[in-house]
Amino acid sequence: MKKIAKHFTILYVFFMSFTTQAQTFFTEDFNSYPIGHLNTNYDNTTPGHGGWLVSRNLSSLATGMITAEAGKGNVLTITTNSTTSDGCGFTQEEGFLNTLWNNRTPGNNIFKFEYEFYGGGTFNFGGNVKISYKAGSSTLTNIAFQSMSNLNRILGGYLENTSSKSITLKSYTASTFPYNMWIKAEMFVDFNANNVYFYIPILNLQATAPFNHNYIPGNLYFGAGNLNTTSTVKIDNIKVSGLKTLPPYILSANEQLAAKFNMYPNPATNVVNITNAENMLVQQVTVYDIAGKQLSTQSFNNQTEIQLNVENLASGTYMLYLQTTEGIAVKKLVKK
Predict the structure, then answer these.
(1) Count of alpha carbons within 13 Å of 252, Cβ hemisphere only?
(2) What NCBIfam families does its record include (predicted)?
């Protein structure tokens, strides 16, 4: 059931003596809707149940149906009778998150977006927070699940400055992809520290990245593409909220991963060595200054030990974002 708070509800969550004040903006669990189409109109013009607009091409056979799921209640199920690539999208009316975010409780400057996903067969699915409703609008944050011919992976996407970026949370093969299971995806956009965080607890996946912009949440969009008769995509338990502080498990996951890497010398003059004792593979290192501006990116061929040339950096403090097979590790570097 969609619930947009007319008078914001303050929830108190206690976790290991840690208290986080959370403000719920929007929830959707589909339980109040009858079995059948979420919206019988598929041309993105007339809101259906819960205010959801549904879009698809004129030739598309994809449908978004409310179905009963054992142990979960109702869920949104997306399928198609097409044997070729098909899809559809689901969004709320223009700018509804802008209003909610701009009227949040003072101090709740961390935006949290979460949903549950289930995928079978072939699909390219993403749950997105857009900065605007308009077509082509940039994504503030998203987590995408892709299971296609030779591409099986989970991505975290975000707006860095004026350009969209993505992080591979994990790559799979067709035989190892986590099909036919419910997966909870969590994203945090921290407007205090200008960092975005991705977390998938059941798969133990996490990553973080900095951003440098002032765009705010505008709208929700869920898109399912590359569907055929083998495909099943399900969505449930969508929630958008505002937090004062990051939950401990997000900070702990990032700190634990970063602690596994040794970086020396630090301070450095010309070259810095980065190693780890657990044979984690480094794929890429991105250097940011303390203002969050990206300075350089260097790719590596899944190496456990790397050398990074920092000779051209001016004296100062920098943040190194190490993209690894286990997520993103952030290390602080001082250049002499």
Answers:
(1) 8
(2) Por_Secre_tail
The pLDDT of residue 10 is above 60: no
Please tell me if the domain spanning 23-247 has the same topology as the one spanning 254-335. Answer: no
Cβ burial, residue 281 (10 Å; 0-12/13-18/19+): middle
How many other β-carbons are positioned within 10 Å of the β-carbon of residue 279?
Answer: 8
> What is the three-class DSSP state of 208?
strand
**Residue 242 to residue 190: CA distance in whole angstroms:** 10
**Neighbour-count burial of 233, counting CB atoms closer than 10 A to its CB (0-12 exposed, 13-18 middle, 19+ buried):** buried
Residue 9 pLDDT > 50, yes or no? no
Map out the domains of the chain as residue ranges: 23-247, 254-335
Segment 80-88 mean pLDDT: 96
> Which among 121, 107, 130 is positioned nearest to 149, based on CA atoms?
121
For Cα atoms 202, 112, 328, give the angle at the middle one, nearest 5 degrees: 55
SS3 253: helix
CATH code 3.90.110.10 for 254-335 = no
pTM strictly above 0.85: no
Is CATH 2.60.120.200 the right assignment for the domain spanning 23-247?
A: yes
> Is residue 270 very low, low, confident or very high in pLDDT (cuts 50, 70, 90)?
very high
* The pLDDT of residue 325: 73
